[in-house]
Structures are given as C-alpha cells and as structure tokens.
Design goal:
Number of domains: 1
Helix content: 10-25%
Radius of gyration: 14 Å
Amino acid sequence: MKVLISGSCGFVGNCIARALIDNKPGLELIGLDNFSRPGSQLNVESLRARGVKLLHGDVRCPSDLECIRSLDWIIGGMPDPPALAGRSAGAWSE
C-alpha cells in the first residue's frame, strides 16, 4: 500500500508517519512537506532512516504533486489546512 502524508516533517505528520511505520510494516510511505515551520528540518533524517521517501513541496500546488502516482491513501498532517480545499471555483458564488 502506498501512502502520502502531507506535512510529514511537522509534529502531527511526523507522529502519523512513525505510528504507521511501527504498526503497519510493508507500507510505502511518501512524505510531502514545504518546510515552512521552524524545526521541521529536524525530522528529515529520522524519517529517511525509517524508510520514508521525503519530497519538498506544497499540497496546495498541483505541480508539486505531479510526480506522485498511484496512491492508496493521502493523509493530511499539515497545520492550517486551506479553508477552500476541495471546493470548485463556482461553489462559493451560489
């Protein structure tokens, strides 16, 4: 199973990644983080050492997601999720 964790190097995303690694062996974990929060770089090496493939990018930017294919799950561990996520452009004008 292939899982993407957005915000993987932040507090929540890092905790989710570690829990999945410890409890679900065999998962292919991909972490996506924009590293905008202080301290998020501190989690990079420990996640890589546990087998997480880390990518620098932003889940709000479609071009940052183009290289990621065939995911089974996406877990949002990022802080401050965008309020407009999942809405089409016309959804707010009705």
